[in-house]
User: Fold UDP-glycosyltransferases domain-containing protein from Tilletia walkeri.
Amino acid sequence: MSVDTKDLKHIVFFGGAAWGHARSAIHCAITLCMKSPNLALSLLFPEAFMDRAKDTIDFMLTQETADADLAKDVHARLHLVVVIPPKDYVCPPELEASLMRPFQEASAAFVARWEQLHKDPQQLPRPSMLIVDVCTEFDRKHIKGINDVPIMFWWSSCYNYFVYHFGPDGSGGLGPAFRKSLDTISDIKELNQANEQIWGSTSDELARTGDLRPIHQYEHICSRLPAMPGSGDFTRAINTNVFKKVDGHLICSGEWLEPEARKIVQSYFDDTLKTPTYGVNLRVSARGDEATFSSKQVETLSPPAKELLSFLDDALEKHGAQSVLYLSWGTTFAPFTAPWQADIFLDVMIENKRPFVMSSASVAPIMNPGLEERFEKARKAGICATAPWVPQEAVLQHKAVGAFITHGGWNSTCEAIGAAKPMIFWPFLVDQPFIASLLSDGPEAPGWQLYETRGAVSQYRPYHFSEGPRTSESGETIPVPTGTPEAVRAEFERILIREAARDSPELKKRKERMVALRKRFIESTQPGGETHQAISDLLTPLGCTIRT
Assistant:
């Protein structure tokens, strides 16, 4: 190790069992080490993440700084540590087929590694802080008994959803019910069931999270996906961490983007609950157009990913800038309850000869002969390229891409802001409807939102249509959603073909708004900005020095 350990301060960061969380944790760790020259950080991940984590660190450092010496110094202070469940670990039978199983296993592995870090001789100093992923299972007394350091909660999403899920009385969200369940139910099985019921609320109660129009609780699961096995364990673990176990919260957003939700969070958590919150901002490079994929990085990609980038190069030459749409539902989501929507999407693209690229990571569960036939037809027409894994930041930075059709995950949203790429939201559940509303509502919205993809919504009308049909910025009538195939097609044609067309004034306006949004993001990361101050407030009490 090239860094003098004498003055180092050490933080342990457990990135969890979901790669989307782990990836943003890596970026946060890099940011913290870049801000503080005497901070060393141990990143704890399951073994399955190690190769990706190494590649991600290398890539993110090239995105974050052109200073080779700084990149080398930060790399030397980042330590990847494998966590492995103890040999005697046995998954509880009720979690065998559960959403919670990988998180439970990773949590057991984390606790074992925390114990080992304090038993065996270590190269780094004794940790001064512990950061844990959102759904880590641990015994606070046990962890503190080993080393009584601040335990911080890692929230890799936005403020408005934080308010909805954990907010105070009167907010109309789920927080009061979750907190009451923790205070009144001692039986773990009953508590899990209660949390599952609360999380899947179909109530029409209106939540007010700060920066969004009111939103009905039933819009939280706007695609009406059924509760997944283990969702009660999952939400109970998260809620227990927030309200009972941690000493503070790191939140991946900022006041520059969500000022009103930030005020609610500060008032409730910092002032009332006395668990401080730190807005560590979007987890994406602020270097913008300077941070592009190098030819060396392209060479490391899979053949399908290389072909996809070549397709974009060809499309730029043939059709011009902003001519291609990029669709990704992330690695977990797809229109599982209405797979025919994917058929209609492809039909609309083919009929209108609109070029598109697509991540096929989550398409397999909805694949059928008709859908595969449509993909093949689009490929033969020269308007489509797909890959199981897409180098998303490279795609979003590509000049051929005009808009990003996204499920609205926070990582994807942050990357789109970093690339100043307008978004077309196709949300399914959890934080996605809130993120979509944040960036698609209002008179100066930088994005669009698809509503017909929510399915048959007569019983669950979005609050956005509480007063009936709307009018788009282009003057077209937007009917109250019905979710029929005809309505889905009409919405696709309006947004994907007309309003997001490469030469349309609607796309131009949204592009300008995204550029302005990206500028505000960059300003917030500069010395004197809110992110710099939040990181200083977090690290200075540990003895870390902060670069000015």
User: Anything to note?
Assistant: The mean pLDDT is 92.
